[in-house]
Amino acid sequence: MRRLGFLLRPQWLALFVVVIAFAYLCFTVLAPWQLGKNTRTSRENNQIASSLNTEPAPLISVLPHQDSSAPDAQWRRLTATGHYRPEAQVLVRLRTDDGDPSYEVLTPFAVDGGPTVLVNRGYVKQGDGPGVPPFAAPPTGTVTITGRLRDAEPIMSGKEPFKQDGIQQVYSIAPTQISQLTKVPLTAEYLQLVEGQPGGLGVIALPHLDAGPFLSYGIQWIAFGIVAPIGLGYFVLAEIRQRRLEKAQSGSSTETSGGPDPGPNAEEPAAPLTAEEKTEQKLADRYGRRR
């Protein structure tokens, strides 16, 4: 156990905490976050692809009542007959079309024999000035429209609705919020008009059917969560091996030195003789032996 005592040092304890916390986040937060985005993107791609090959259905067959909801029918094409309610029209800010700033126009649509649904009529590009650009009003009277059913967007925090030029403006397509602002009951989902519809403006293009990198990112975070503890174990083993090697080298150096230090009373080795001292030593030895 003494060999592992270094693991209790503050720097090693801190390293353990960091690695464990990182692995925990990889498995519980980061990987599920990316895998969840991949699941939602794949689901949306499948719904869009299915809608392209499916004939439009009556809206009242999917949303028969005002409080009806159809979260599994997103992107499905639906048809509805009724009339627009332009007095409750709303603009959505901070949108783009081909990189250009724009607004999206939302107008409630009262379905004959059915609920009132919010309709995204399309976009209008923002002009050079600060005001709202002019755009066509919806047709009056009874019309039949076709659009794609869309889920509500989350309300953007920190961005409060306001009125400008007499038009209510919001930052998200959230029928619940818009219903509170306009005092018009709306279904939970909304319709996004397809091309060539009465009251339609700039057509909002479908997103690309691309799953994106979310699956690979999720797998990478899982791999990071596995590799981090393995890397920590490798460093621990390397430290143990290094300590063993240093201990072995210390023991071998003690043996080759001929034992312990002789101490202060031991005789010091004689200094080497100079040339003159060597000559005198030879003469002394020669004449001394003769005597």
Short key terms for the protein model shown above:
291 residues, alpha/beta, 5-stranded mixed β-barrel, 9 strands, SURF1-like protein, transmembrane helix, transmembrane, Surf1/Surf4, Surf1/Shy1
> Which range does the strand content fall in?
15-25%
Overall pLDDT confidence: 82
Order of strands across the biggest sheet?
2-4-5-9-6
Largest sheet: 5 strands, mixed, barrel
The total of helices stands at 5
| Radius of gyration, in angstroms, nearest whole number | 41 Å
Helix content bin: 25-40%
Distance between the termini: 73 Å
Low-confidence spans: none
Question: What's the gist of this structure?
Answer:
It contains five helices and nine strands, in the order αβαβββββββαβαα.
Please provide a written account of the structure.
This protein is of the alpha/beta class and 291 residues long. It is 39% helix and 20% strand. The chain is built from five helices and nine strands. Strands 2-4-5-9-6 form a five-stranded mixed β-barrel. β3 (90-97) and β4 (100-111) form a beta hairpin. α1 (10-52) runs antiparallel to α4 (214-256). It is elongated. The relative contact order is 0.15. The mean pLDDT is 82.
